[in-house]
Structure formats: structure tokens, C-alpha cells
Specification:
This protein is mainly α. It is 73% helix and 4% strand. The chain has 2 domains: 38-100, Arc Repressor Mutant, subunit A, CATH 1.10.10.10; 105-247, Four Helix Bundle (Hemerythrin (Met), subunit A), CATH 1.20.120. It contains 11 helices and 3 strands. The longest helix is centred in the middle third of the chain and has 25 residues, at 105-129.
């Protein structure tokens, strides 16, 4: 074997050195994040306010007023508003500015069509793949749902519904389907808040019963029954949402569920 020439040896050493530096630089790029940024906190606060219907659908969002209310800078507020716009919770209307999004009948129909296509399969996969902790999480969410109905608390009711579906997605072990649904999460939660405000207590108790049926079928590992129940539940939800939006497109909920 011919000995490596001096120029070749130097080139090889240079390449190895460059590779080592690249590896070191990559390690140095690791970001440690222990707390949310101010922008993230602002986004969270505004999202919660919109989902709780603190701002009415179609309401004009004035930056100066929001800066005063939140206590953050205009640049931080604008970043948060851009993020909420990407979630579909805020609409930019020409030169008029930003407005709280309203969900039309057609948008609601499309959202429920996507859910009807994905959720039965997620339920089927859950019944095949979920571990004990996932099943426990389903029933824990149902307990919270029942408590929210008893307390007439819309916010807790919607959070419990979200927790149920998060557990269902986690147990299905399909990250792609979960990501697709998460892109709709804000809009779905928005719809749930609006429709829950118009639902009777009897309907809410029926909701708990139907969701408990999904959880029981999943615990039995009855894949066909879980898929069937998930599809029927989405169809029921879609029909009620269409009814609510058709009767009162800009209807706002009462402060709580009591007095229905």
C-alpha cells in the first residue's frame, strides 16, 4: 500500500477536524427551555379568553386596548395574535384589522366531516393498542365530565371533553392522526364551547353516557363497537352544532350552565 502523501494526510486531518467541530457545534445548539416565553403566555391567555367567549365572535380586536389589558408590548402581542390567526381563532379582514373568528355552518360541517373520517379509526386503534394507563385516563376524563355537569361549569366540561379525546389519541399510538386532529383542536374547542352553552342538562348527561359507552367498548377491546360508537357520537354532535349555528349564528353562552 502506498503511503499517504503529506498533502493528502493534511487534508484528511482537516476533514476530521471539521467533522469534530460540526459535532461539537451541533451539541452546542441544544436548547434548554424550562419556562414558557412571554409570547407563549400571552398567546395562552388570549386563546383561553377566546375559547371562554370572553371576546364575542366577530368582535374587533384593538391592539392598543389588548396591550393595556395584558400588560405586554405591542410586538409581543402581535406575535401572539399571529399565532392565534394560524390556529383559526382570529381572522384578518382586509384593511380593517383582526377580528375574533366566527364559525360558519359550512366550516362546522367540514370540521365534523374530518372528525367523522378520523375518530372512528382512532377509537378502533385505541381498543387494539391502548395500555391500562390510557384506559384509566379515559375514565378519569369521564369522571371530570360528570363533575362539570353537576357543577354547571362550561369551561370544565369542555376541558374534560378535550382530555377524553387526548387520551383516545394517545392510546391509539398514531402520531400522524393525532397531529391532524390537533390542527383542528382550537376550532373544535370553540365549537364545543358554543354548543355546550346551548345544550340542556339532559343532553349533557346523555353525552356522558354515550362517551362512557365508547370507553367501556374500548376496555372490552371491541374494535368494531368502538368505531361504531365514535362515528355515531360525531354525527350526533354535528347535527346539534348545525342546529345551534342555524338558529343563532352569533349566539353567546350564559356565564354557566345553570338555569337552563
Amino acid at each position: 500500500m502506498l503511503a499517504m502523501s503529506l498533502p493528502d494526510a493534511k487534508l484528511d486531518r482537516d476533514r476530521n477536524g471539521a467533522n469534530n467541530r460540526m459535532k461539537a457545534d451541533t451539541r452546542n445548539l441544544r436548547v434548554t427551555k424550562d419556562t414558557p416565553t412571554l409570547r407563549e403566555l400571552t398567546t395562552r391567555k388570549l386563546r383561553e379568553a377566546i375559547l371562554a367567549l370572553r371576546f364575542r365572535p366577530g368582535e374587533h380586536l384593538v391592539e392598543r386596548a389588548l396591550c393595556e389589558e395584558t400588560g405586554v408590548s405591542r410586538s409581543c402581542l402581535r406575535e401572539a395574535l399571529r399565532h392565534l390567526e394560524s390556529e383559526g381563532l382570529i381572522d384578518r379582514v382586509g384593511g380593517r384589522g383582526l377580528f375574533v373568528a366566527s364559525i360558519t355552518l359550512d366550516e362546522a360541517r367540514q370540521i365534523y366531516e374530518v372528525r367523522a373520517a378520523i375518530e372512528p379509526e382512532i377509537g378502533r386503534l385505541f381498543s387494539e393498542r391502548a395500555g391500562a394507563r390510557h384506559i384509566d385516563a379515559l375514565f378519569a376524563a369521564l369522571d371530570k365530565l360528570e363533575s362539570a355537569v353537576a357543577a354547571h361549569d362550561i369551561a370544565d366540561y369542555v376541558k374534560a371533553l378535550d382530555s377524553f379525546y387526548e387520551a383516545l389519541c394517545a392510546g391509539s399510538d398514531n402520531a400522524v392522526a393525532h397531529r391532524i386532529l390537533r390542527t383542528l383542536h382550537a376550532r373544535v374547542t370553540y365549537l364545543r364551547t358554543i354548543t355546550t352553552a346551548k345544550a340542556s342538562e339532559a343532553r349533557e348527561r346523555e353525552t356522558v353516557t354515550l362517551m362512557r359507552g365508547i370507553a367501556e367498548a374500548a376496555r372490552r377491546r371491541d374494535t368494531a363497537d368502538v368505531a361504531l360508537r365514535c362515528r355515531a357520537f360525531v354525527k350526533r354532535s354535528a347535527a346539534f352544532a348545525q342546529q345551534v349555528l342555524a338558529e343563532e349564528p352569533d349566539a353567546m353562552p350564559r356565564a354557566n350552565i345553570a338555569g337552563r
